[in-house]
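Lecture 7 notes. Example A: sequence first, then its structure tokens.
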Amino acid sequence: MSKPQTEKKGDANIVMRIGHVFSRVLDTFEVAVLSLGTALLAILLIINVIARNVSMSIYFAEELSKLFIILITFTGTSFAARKARHIRMGAILEQLPPKVEKTIVIIISAISAIVMLYLAYVAFDYVKTLKFRGTRTQALGVRYWTYVAIAPVMLFITAVQFFRTIIKNFVEEDVWLSPEQQSEFEDEDAMVADVIEKAGGEDWKIKEKK
């Protein structure tokens, strides 16, 4: 193998490692926000219903509910783009030849990335306006821009996920619906391999043999 080819392979490995670390960190963050946000939202609403029947409702319940919904919505947008859980015409795409399917996926991902970048810009401008005005929530008196600050961040990350999908389809021969989802439905081998990787990879296999 020539020196230029070795250098290119080394650069590709570095990029793949960075992408893998980025995905793991982002996955931990998104799963934590979605899990905790959904659980806390449910608990808050249940407690508020009980409080209404007993005496009086919690005065800040509505504001916190809005915060949790904002967190869940925009974090879920990024999660859906990374795991290919967003709405798409999967039944139609799967009937097309692989090259045509790959081309359509790349075009859709490119358009989606541009739209997400534009929405991230609009959301960022909105956050700046709220911060400049000093708008506060009525019940808790918290600066409202802190409630929606996650919107431009997660919209931008969603755009990054679509760009990663484009790169993945250019690099790999198979069709990738997202950076981490190759086909419409994961097979058992892929699911087992993912579990083994999260459990410690080769060390897990060695322990199992022992």
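Example B, a different protein, same format:
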Amino acid sequence: MAIVHLAYIVLVAAALIATVLSPFYLDIFKAGDLWEKHFSAKLFIILLERLSIASLIIAVISYFHFIIFTHKFCGPLVNIGRTIARISERDFTRKIFLRKGDFLVTEAQQINDMMKALSNSVETIKKENSLLLDDLEKSIQAHGKQAEIEAELKGFQDRADRCRLHLDNFKLIDHSPNKVDISQGQQLLRDNPLSANKSL
């Protein structure tokens, strides 16, 4: 990008010099007074030198300005891209840290806030799942004690409701939150003998 930008600046400078000096260049080879030709040639050389120096300075300044600009713009883009790649791997630990003067500060903060919200939601669900597993273990140990089993099942339901509240906050691709898969529900009933016994 920097090379293309520099080539563009050089092309613009060449077009500008050619446009400004073309009348003097034509006067040099035009038939007429020798003094007029001499004056045109001298003015042509002076302007060529001055315009060439000015164009070179402008090209150098523009090149370095473009390098700084792209560094402050592309650097955050690369950083954001790496963080998004980690998110796709279900890793929410990599935050976006920008340097002073970098662009895309608002976008980087939005991604950091998104990762924090996702991380908090997943952490809550993991805690509820861990407690649910503990309750399942207690329910297995309370085999034959119907009252304790019913109390444990009530606890399962409460924890499942809390997990569902967190999961319902996520909007998934091509998925309706109100759509229920009956076959999956029947499979869960077959895999949960405690619920089947309770319903009996």
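Note on Example B: Confidence is low (pLDDT under 50) at residues 176-200. The radius of gyration is 37 Å.
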